[in-house]
Design a protein that fits this description.
coiled coil, mainly alpha, 94% helix
Length: 117
């Protein structure tokens, strides 16, 4: 009977050791699950930030296209106005009168009279 009692004591000790290992494993799993939850939350946050940055980039690209188009239109308008001024008879007359005035001839009065008519 003494040996049966010793066997049972040893078996209890083995089960207690196994139980301790299982508790340690359960704690490790719990810690890993908590860490995994934190990483999932951080991952979701980063994905949202990436989505926002991509959206912002698209808005910047669009705004850049709009600004470029406006600048191009403004440049075209400036060129058109410059061309129109160059082709304008008044401008041509003014250029002629400037040349004539610089040569000290009296056609300035003639130009003024032409513009009045």
């Amino acid at each position: 009977m003494h040996s049966e009692f010793d066997l049972l004591k040893n078996r209890i000790a083995e089960l207690e050791a196994e139980n301790a290992k299982l508790r340690q494993t359960i704690k490790e799993i719990s810690d890993l699950e908590a860490e995994n939850s934190k990483r999932k939350a951080e991952n979701a946050k980063l994905k949202a930030e990436v989505a926002k940055l991509r959206h912002d980039i698209e808005e910047i690209k669009l705004q850049t296209r709009v600004n470029t188009n406006e600048q191009d239109a403004s440049l075209i308008e400036d060129i058109s106005q410059s061309s129109a001024c160059l082709e304008s008879p008044v401008t041509l007359e003014a250029q002629r009168s400037t040349k004539e005035a610089s040569s000290n001839s009296p056609p300035i009065k003639e130009l003024e009279q032409k513009q009045l008519h």
